[in-house]
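Re-run requested by the PI after the first attempt was lost when the workstation crashed. Everything re-entered from the original request form. Ligand of interest: iron/sulfur cluster.
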Amino acid sequence: MEFTALAPRRRTRQIMVGDVAVGGDAAVSVQSMTVTKTADVEGTLQQIYALAAAGADIVRCTCNDLEAAEGLAAIVPRSPVPIVADIHHQYKMALAALEAGVQCLRLNPGNIRNPSHIKAVAGECKDRGVPIRIGVNGGSLDKALYAKYGGRVTPEAMVESAQQELAYFEEIGFDLVKISVKASNVPLMIEAYRQLAEVTDHPLHLGVTEAGPPPAGLVKATAGIATLLAEGIGDTIRYSLTADPVEEARAGRQLLEAMGLREPKFIDLIACPSCGRAEIDVIDVAKRAMDAFGDREIPLQVAVMGCVVNGPGEARDADLGIAAGRRKGHLFIKGVNVRVVPEDEMVETLVAYAERIVAEGVDAVLAGEDLDRARREAESDRLALLGEQGDDANDARARVEVIRKTVGS
Ligand code: SF4
């Protein structure tokens, strides 16, 4: 069943960050940021490769001193993805990063305020065809705007900050721009982006800044980013987590895949929530399966189900799955029982069959299996479990009897 619940994508101009198109009809891209010292070329490159493998299309590195700028000169030519230099206070670092060959700059308008410095950087970017992200941040909003809006960070203040910066760029005819208006407060961030989307057609970079460690950070970032994407707003995204940045890249990619905004490239693991019927520790098996698949490029939906009574039926749309029954795992492909394996081989069997499906296709894999036997064994385990557990696995009727007796006595 293919459908989309997303509003039509907002029309934006397109810019190029290296070879990655952002805005227009380009796919929404995923960004992340290294946490190494940029001067540590090998360490930073290692992290960039890990981020790219986890799904990042663009990576940002800080350019906070001369050593970092020199590091960028060595990193950019060896990076598998375009590099954005993060500039905070010193406009000369922006010029140095351009000399290093970065494919984009990020400027924080709250930190570089001198118009001649801003225009010097934009002019250099214009000559080189390098885009700039105007990165407004609620926590470092321009002090004058903060005061103007009553000593508070408001969506209006954040949008005005972006527009002021944009006006400097327009004065010199520079328009290779994307914009972000991030805040750590989710409703504030959502409203700021909504207002910004009304007044500009530049592509928007979405993020909830300083979202914090997972799982709360993941929830906050997803709440903000997904809400806007569902409204058709957003051209590139970044999760800002207090965690290994690989988690950021993975989360961004998984969100886009979950929303149908990116072709699946990796495993989509689904698992039942478990209940009184479960014949295995579903949480443990699902986690071990996730670890075993890691970041392998296997674009299949794989199901881990706690029992063979309901599992294969509930996960019939999955490409592949396993359901537990009486110390065995019943492997199924597209809802068809295929094989029975010992419980402790469930995870490795899932991985092996996933690889075979990718290599040979579903029909070829099914053709080599004794489907009748697998179906009979699954049915026999299903009936045995139903006989043992009945259709009331959580023992609700017995509990109701006890409650009635307690209340009646
Ligand atoms: S009935 Fe089976 S598949 Fe459904 S939640 Fe319970 S254990 Fe999982």
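Saved to the shared folder this time. The CA atoms of residues 136 and 146 lie 12 Å apart.
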